From TrEMBL:
Ranges of residues in domain Tr-type G: 78-248
Family of this protein: Belongs to the TRAFAC class translation factor GTPase superfamily. Classic translation factor GTPase family. IF-2 subfamily.
Protein name per Swiss-Prot or TrEMBL: Translation initiation factor IF-2
Binding site for GTP: 87-94, 134-138, 188-191
Function of the molecule: One of the essential components for the initiation of protein synthesis. Protects formylmethionyl-tRNA from spontaneous hydrolysis and promotes its binding to the 30S ribosomal subunits. Also involved in the hydrolysis of GTP during the formation of the 70S ribosomal complex.
Subcellular locations according to the entry: Cytoplasm
């Protein structure tokens, strides 16, 4: 529990409770002896008695991090980049993702049947993998960002060549900028008669998204999701950006990452699509996703195949959680059931606290000093 009773705090400082109540009142806290004080209030009040408050309460994230296991200091290795596709309604996000999946060498090998799990990895010609998040909704992106756990490395902003920049194009650009991720502009529907890529470059330049050929640093790729033209070239650009970013992770430690989407499914129970950011998730391990705990009962990859483990930069569908977590939630693999209970209980308390704190938008780190 992350609070302390007035009477207990008074005792700690060798005071009588009414003395403490008086000072609390003076500071605008309508206190009584049995009231629970949060850390911020305690930190504010104790200097009046010559004390200094130190927060020894642990956050869920701190406990998860402290109890991480495996080869924690193993050398980091290159992982697949995670790409989010964003853009205005009807500009072709879904079609582009379909076209990309069509270019998947591995899918071709497996007979071309891919299962939709909200995130998928594509093997490009040189054998490298790129992971795409099939949740282009701005809400999911914002939720992830708000939780300080942005899972995206690169944003692809789709703009229809015959339509031009639209309000949601601007929003998408702002999201990418705020998240500090590099972007690629996919000028889509190039097959259409009215396609005018120069106009789009002009419009985006006004948002300070300047094409390379105009002296800026943003790559514009002219594509047609419908005719599947320009897709390979665009994937090549994604690969180059990823190489520059040197995205690395340690697959030898316990897994941690983000919930991309989650739902309740008949016969399966809670089903969550995880994106592993670091480490490896294995069947049988204990997990906490958001406030929900569980044990990994099964893992399924984006090709619909059962797998025993999933590493950094890759998505998988997990079964075995006690309930459905929220999209954007952080997840951690923890060493045992006790730790799973502890982390999930702490997260629940923190979530409750955040919900009843006036500025509920504040991050948990703001509310609970990091240990
Ligand atoms: P929302 O999810 O509703 O925001 O749309 P979206 O951005 O996912 O667009 P979607 O892929 O559904 O495509 C919208 C329409 O544009 C569909 O009718 C597509 O067939 C069409 N379209 C997408 N890409 C192309 C393209 O390259 N050329 C042409 N001619 N039409 C396209
Ligand atoms: Mg769509």
């Amino acid at each position: 529990n992350n609070t302390m009773k007035v009477s207990d705090l008074a005792m700690e400082m060798g005071l009588k409770a009414p003395q403490l109540v008086k000072v609390l009142m003076k500071n605008g806290v309508m206190a009584n002896m049995n009231m629970d004080l949060d850390f911020d209030t305690i930190a504010l009040i104790v200097p009046e008695f010559g004390w200094e408050a130190q927060n020894v309460f642990k956050t869920a994230d701190a406990v998860a991090e402290e109890t991480a296991f495996g080869e924690l200091n193993a050398e980091a290795v290159i992982r697949p980049p995670v790409v989010t596709v964003m853009g205005h309604v009807d500009h072709g996000k879904t079609s582009l993702l379909d076209a990309i999946r069509n270019a998947d060498v591995a899918a071709g090998e497996a007979g071309g049947i891919t299962q939709h799990i909200g995130a998928y990895s594509v093997k490009i010609e040189d054998g490298n993998l790129i992971t795409f998040l099939d949740t282009p909704g701005h809400e999911a992106f914002t939720a992830m960002r708000a939780r300080g756990a942005n899972a995206t490395d690169i944003a692809i902003i789709v703009v229809a060549a015959d339509d031009g920049m639209m309000p949601q194009t601007q929003e998408a650009v702002n999201h990418a900028k705020a998240a500090g991720v590099p972007m690629i502009v996919a000028v889509n529907k190039m097959d259409k008669p009215g396609a005018n890529p120069d106009r789009i470059k002009q419009q985006l330049t006004e948002l300070e998204v300047v094409p390379e050929e105009w002296g800026g640093n943003t790559i514009f790729c002219e594509v047609s999701a419908l005719k599947k033209t320009g897709i390979k070239e665009m994937l090549e650009q994604v690969k180059l950006l990823a190489e520059v970013a040197e995205l690395k992770a340690n697959p030898k430690r316990s897994g941690t990452g983000i919930v991309i989407e989650a739902k309740m499914e008949k016969g399966k129970g809670p089903v969550a699509t995880l994106l592993v950011k670091d480490g490896t998730v294995e069947v049988g391990q204990y997990i906490v996703a958001g406030t929900m705990k569980g044990r990994v009962r099964s893992l399924t990859n984006d090709k619909g195949e059962r797998i025993q483990s999933v590493g950094p930069g890759l998505p998988a569908e997990v079964l075995g959680l006690e309930a459905v977590p929220a999209a954007g939630d952080k997840f951690d693999i923890v060493k045992d059931e006790d730790t799973a209970n502890e982390v999930s209980t702490l997260r629940k308390e923190q979530a409750e606290k955040a919900a009843t704190t006036p500025n509920a938008k504040m991050s948990l780190e703001d509310i609970f000093a990091k240990v």
